[in-house]
Design a protein that fits this description.
The complex is a heterodimer of chains A (374) and B (391).
Chain A (H helix, E strand, L loop, with lengths): L6 H17 L2 H9 L6 H9 L18 H14 L5 H15 L2 H13 L4 E4 L15 E5 L2 E12 L6 E7 L10 E6 L6 E7 L5 E12 L4 E2 L6 H36 L1 E2 L2 E2 L4 H31 L4 H25 L10 H14 L4 H9 L1
Parallel strand pairs in A: 1-4
Antiparallel strand pairs in A: 2-3, 3-7, 4-5, 5-8, 6-7, 9-10
Chain B lengths: L6 H16 L8 H14 L19 H13 L8 H13 L2 H13 L4 E4 L15 E4 L5 E9 L9 E7 L10 E7 L5 E7 L5 E14 L3 E2 L5 H15 L3 H17 L1 E2 L2 E2 L4 H29 L6 H4 L1 H19 L16 H12 L9 H11 L11
Parallel strand pairs in B: 1-4
Antiparallel strand pairs in B: 2-3, 3-7, 4-5, 5-8, 6-7, 9-10
Helix pairs in contact in B: 1-3, 3-7, 3-8, 4-5, 4-6, 7-8, 7-10, 8-10, 10-11
The chains are: A alpha+beta (374), B alpha+beta (391).
Chain lengths: 374, 391
Amino acid sequence: MNFDLTEEQQLLEDSVARFVADKYPLEQRRKLADGSRGYSEDHWKAFAELGWLAVPFDEDDGGIGGGPVETMVVMEQFGRGLVLEPYLPTVILGGGVLRRTLAGDQRADLLGKLIEGKLQLAFAHSEEQARWDLNDVTSSAREDGDGWILNGAKTVVFNGGNADLLIVSARNSGGQMDTDGISLFLVDPKADGVKVESYPTVDGLRAAEVTLKDVRVAGDALLGDAGKAWPIIEAVADEALLALCAEALGSLDVMVKDTVQYTQERQQFGHPLADFQTVQHRLVEMFMEYEQCKSLVYRATMEYAQNGHEAARTLSACKHLIGTAGKFIGENAVQLHGGMGVTEELRLGHFFKRQLVIESQFGNSDFHLEQFAA
Amino acid sequence: MDIELSADDLKFRDEVREFFQSHDYKPGEDYAKWRLDWFKAAREKGGWDVPKWPQEFGGPGWSPTQHYIWEQETARANLPWDLPFGVGMVAPIIMTYGSKEQQERFLPDIRARSVNWCQGYSEPGAGSDLASLKTKAELTEDGKHYVVNGSKIWTTMAHIADWIFCLTRTDSSGKKQEGITFLLFPMKQEGIEVKPIITLGGSHTVNTVHFTDVKVPVENRIGEEGKGWTYAKGLLAHERTGLAGVSRSLVALEKLKHQAGTVKRGNGSLFDDPSFRGKLAKLEVDLQALEFTELRSLARAASGQQPGPESSILKLKGTEIQQRIAHLTMEAAGPHMAPWGGVNAGPKFARGGTQSYLGSRAYTIYGGASEVQKDIIAKNVLGIRSQGGSN
């Protein structure tokens, strides 16, 4: 048992931390978020050059063979800067599907492009009625000669508007809630019958509504075996959940520390706010929740690295705590910043909004408490 | 970063399990004899009777992982009763601040569990504000004795204790933290009166202790006169991390789940009640987190680093979780939380449940009330330098 980062992991952390400190002051983030793609293509190139896009891929694929701990290290630092670049949709979700399904030339081609920073992906899986049930899929896939015809609607697809390729889930057999019978397809967003409506999300990111009307894809668009996508969906969802929790952890640390600092500077009634015991105790409660979150992010990540999906219960515990603690820390950070807390001027409010969106992704805290208790 | 137990760790775990099994208490055995034999056998394993003592004083010198394994296994095993005051509390002070002579005089009996100790800190007028204590110790003219007068309160097990380690005031002219002197003396002597305090659960574990002209030889003083607060403070931090009780809570939670499954509700059990199950699940999430918080703290200690910020929350969160388990156990009993005494009504765990709940209310009061803990974390961990607050 060991809680220390290896030398390589420490170097990775340092390099991401330096980038975030250098490139992500609030003003610059705001400009990027308002730009045409909602992130910086130069940053993405830098990610490729620094090897960050290669983290979870095997060395045979041109990757660096990192695991859940390396992803955690990267995402935690991204969380400290509210990084906008679509690392989660492209590398974790999209890349997670591709490295589990592709073979031969197609594998070399697409993973190569991804790692070089020349491919943007989006995971078009969630449907409106499904809320967070990953197995609830009504989009359909019908065999048509040597290809497939896809129909359905996908909702809040992060990075959907920027994606060069969409990874779409659709059912070729079974009932609405069956885990069996779901397939994954690579879909060109410009193909006939595909509609991608992109919009900003409350945290400054971009997502899209994706509809597919009689979209014809070729046989090689099918990722893995027909109807057998469930374990792949489960795996990338696990990894996305861990990545989000690590990102949240980095954000929570910033929120706690910003609030400790602000309450010591802000004078009221002739005292710094932090002189008041009621304020001190609230800060301590926020700090304690953060430490508990850190423990569960470590635990879930290490257990997943060890046991894969068997660690699902701990992953649910982690997402639950990140959700409840995130709300507690976020709301109290806003409260203790007083009027400034509810403005767009301080970075605090932006961290708070990101926290709210993380709570809404891949199962909120109630959903995961239910999973945990089941 | 990984959680794999090494082959050596697994071997150690088996060895611990084997030891507990082969030294388990057999019904009908003389308990007192079994108890002392158990500690002797643990000692022969190489310091297993004093896992937390430094190696130079006979401790086993375990890695944090080994400590963790020990904690986990002890929580499930039937260990002989052991009060924390000797081995866990006064011994580290004697090791750190006592003279060589005092170490030789006191440590062997403490280790053998042949002498019971109690802690004389809190006073009727000084609870979490410990430093404002007033029990007076005056040096006799010949400089050979202190004469102790005053009262201590909440003194756990004073009624069976052979010795007390006691904070006394030898000087009240300066700051309240100065002029405190750390004395050791026997409890069974003239001038000491112990009166029971019955707590809400109906049990007698704590007492008030009155001292009238109790004579204590100067060689029973630890360290220098007036420095007792410094000595005690280090121990308090130590006491607080020990109060988290994570392993015990893990076992108690398993028991509670089992008990909830035996409580009938319609055609099912209490376990089917979504509200109860939700509370249980939330509790388990928090405990899983705290278990790792404790591990992080252990790992740091073992690599010789100063305790990290994570250590400071162990007592606060740990006691809160113990209280929640006790509360849910009482809640699980439903209307049967009420019958008291030797009544045969409702599930068997009901009586114990109510009693532990009532007892658990003290957890966030002793060892420094939670509010005081928060003051300490604000100052020492968050680095807030208050000018106008209460601390």
